[in-house]
């Protein structure tokens, strides 16, 4: 009387087709979430009180009474206590491999003033004398009361001869000091005809954009495979904490991070069953060769 594949009212409507039901019954890692506000985000924006999962797949959505017979005797049940449950969010543009490689550096986002970001960066520099390049990331000038980034002179005053780069939250711009300009092959005392080196009164201000920002990032020491792997585990944990279970990359291989190594490390994590974020990683032409080499 409770056959989920049965056409109950002659309308052709079933909970599952026989094929779907067979696949569901083969799964042994079932979790039933009950007593919640399940937001399906389907075309009708329907809500439900329970959802049944099998491994990393959503098997069924409905009432607890409908789903318990499908879960089987060995399932685990989670009481949501009236809380809301969404499907995993998809980050439509990010650079998870950059985040992973930058775990060792200073996060300078969320500051109300430019000085606060510089204090974070200066503290990091003092705590890590072994790092040949000082790097901070996530800085958003538009969110500060200053409404600007630091000048080359301001960075020189704080960091002297240590090459320094403060990356804008967009990753399409960065602020660098004189030592970093020299590493990049840019004369900090002369006008530059490259529009990506912003100049005022005939001298670079410290702000670089687009390809020149990427050139600054390319001066960072290469990240080791073991460090990238640990960084990816940390990055995925942070993504999951915010509700993200998938990410679409903004271009693999930017910022001096090796394409082949990134793909090899991701492959290792997948084989080890440690991938908690689905990664869609578009990359530039040379990346195809790296992908093939990485298997």
Could you characterize the architecture of this molecule?
By secondary structure, the protein is of the alpha/beta class. Helix content is 34%, strand content 24%. The protein is built from ten helices and 16 strands. It has a six-stranded mixed beta sheet. The protein has a four-stranded mixed beta sheet with strand order 5-4-1-6, covered by helices on one side. A hairpin with a 7-residue loop joins β2 and β3. α8 crosses α9 and α9 packs across α10. The radius of gyration is 25 Å and the shape is elongated. The model has no long low-confidence stretch (mean pLDDT 89).
Number of strands: 16
- SSE class: alpha/beta
Cα-atom Rg, whole angstroms? 25 Å
Mean pLDDT: 89
Share in β-strands: 15-25%
Q: What is the molecular shape?
A: elongated
Low-confidence stretches: none
Major sheet characteristics: 6 strands, mixed
- The string of secondary-structure elements, in order, is HEEEEEHEEEHEHEHEEHEEHHEHEH
- Side by side, the strands of the main sheet go 9-10-11-12-14-13
What gap, in angstroms, lies between the N and C termini?
50 Å
Helix content: 25-40%
Count of helical regions: 10
């Amino acid at each position: 009387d409770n056959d989920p594949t049965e056409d109950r009212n002659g309308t052709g409507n079933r909970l599952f087709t026989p094929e779907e039901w067979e696949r569901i019954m083969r799964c042994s890692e079932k979790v039933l979430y009950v007593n919640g506000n399940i937001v399906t985000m389907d075309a009708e924006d329907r809500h439900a009180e329970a959802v049944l999962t099998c491994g990393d797949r959503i098997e069924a959505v409905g009432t607890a009474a409908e789903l318990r017979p499908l879960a089987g005797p060995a399932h685990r049940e989670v009481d949501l206590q009236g809380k809301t449950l969404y499907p995993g969010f998809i980050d439509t543009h990010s650079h998870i491999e950059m985040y992973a490689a930058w775990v060792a550096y200073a996060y300078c986002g969320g500051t109300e003033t430019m000085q606060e970001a510089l204090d974070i960066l200066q503290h990091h520099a003092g705590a890590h004398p072994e790092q040949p390049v000082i790097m901070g990331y996530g800085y958003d000038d538009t969110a500060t009361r200053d409404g600007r980034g630091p000048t080359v002179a301001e960075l020189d005053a704080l960091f002297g001869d240590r090459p320094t780069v403060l990356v804008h939250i967009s990753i399409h711009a960065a602020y660098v000091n004189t030592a970093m300009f020299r590493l990049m092959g840019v004369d900090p005392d002369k006008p530059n005809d490259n529009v990506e080196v912003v100049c005022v009164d005939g001298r670079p201000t410290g702000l670089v954009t687009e390809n020149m920002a990427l050139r600054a990032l390319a001066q960072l020491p290469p990240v080791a495979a073991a460090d990238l792997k640990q960084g990816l585990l940390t990055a995925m944990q942070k993504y999951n904490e915010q509700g993200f279970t998938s990410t679409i990359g903004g271009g693999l291989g930017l910022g001096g991070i090796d394409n082949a190594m990134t793909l090899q490390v991701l492959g290792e994590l997948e084989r080890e069953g440690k991938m908690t974020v689905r990664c869609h990683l578009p990359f530039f032409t040379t990346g195809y060769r790296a992908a093939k080499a990485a298997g």
